[in-house]
Design a protein that fits this description.
heterodimer, A: mainly beta, seven-stranded mixed beta sheet, 0% helix, B: mainly beta, 12 strands, globular
Chain lengths: 114, 113
């Protein structure tokens, strides 16, 4: 199993540009998550999904959109990039009964918005 | 609001020193507890987790953590650190049946050879 994979690894965007961060997992996990990690700030949940076709907002959803058309894929969309979105983005997936899940993380995408 | 507090933001140790990183949470009910490690330039990896049972949990690479319910704590320990343990360590808590994790801000550990 490749686990959780993310592309691209690194990207520079200009203010106002848009892009999609890709996340794929091959573990047949139902639950998937997008986090952003800023220095000294820990991880903040952006969006999560409990299954194909179902998504919900996390702590910091503004400026982002997600979709979950398949179990494997959970792309994160930035429509109008802003400098405040400079961060490292991690995708995670998990399985298990509610309250018994463990999250597994991808390698991250480092995004710089100039 | 539920929160997770990691008291040590930066820790510097020499090789072979013992390590204890603090983690406290604010939630009075059932919790799942996790420690993740992030080596420089890498993604988060699970070190260990507690769901129920023995409050002393052993993880990978010689790490262990003890859940003390009365103190709302889940401190991470290792008796003898190595240079390769240099990393950032995150404590995370799931409160009750909530699907989301609450994360601490992390502790940066530097081990000098």
């Amino acid at each position: 199993n490749a686990g959780v994979t993310q592309t691209p690894k690194f990207r520079i965007l200009k203010i106002g540009q848009s892009m999609t961060l890709q996340c794929t997992q091959d573990m047949n996990h139902n639950y998937m998550y997008w986090y952003r990690q800023d220095p000294g700030m820990g991880l903040k949940l952006i969006y999560y999904s409990v299954g194909a076709g179902i998504t919900d907002k996390g702590e910091v959803p503004n400026g982002y959109n997600v979709s979950r058309s398949t179990t494997e894929d959970f792309p994160l969309r930035l429509e109008l990039a802003a400098p405040s979105q400079t961060s490292v983005y991690f995708c995670a997936s998990s399985y298990g009964d509610r309250g018994k899940e463990t999250q597994y993380f991808g390698p991250g995408t480092r995004l710089l918005v100039l | 609001a539920q929160s997770v507090s990691q008291h040590n933001h930066h820790v510097i140790l020499s090789e072979a020193a013992s390590l204890e990183l603090g983690c406290n949470y604010s939630y009075g009910g059932t919790v799942n507890l996790f420690w993740y490690v992030q080596y420089p330039g890498q993604h988060l990896q699970l070190l260990l987790k507690y769901f129920s049972g023995d409050p002393l949990v052993k993880g990978i690479k010689g790490f262990e953590a003890e859940f003390i319910k009365s103190k709302f704590s889940f401190n991470l320990r290792k008796p003898s650190v190595q240079w390769s343990d240099t990393a950032e360590y995150f404590c995370a808590v799931r409160a009750g049946n909530n699907r989301k994790l609450i994360w601490g801000l992390g502790t940066s550990l530097a081990v000098n050879p």
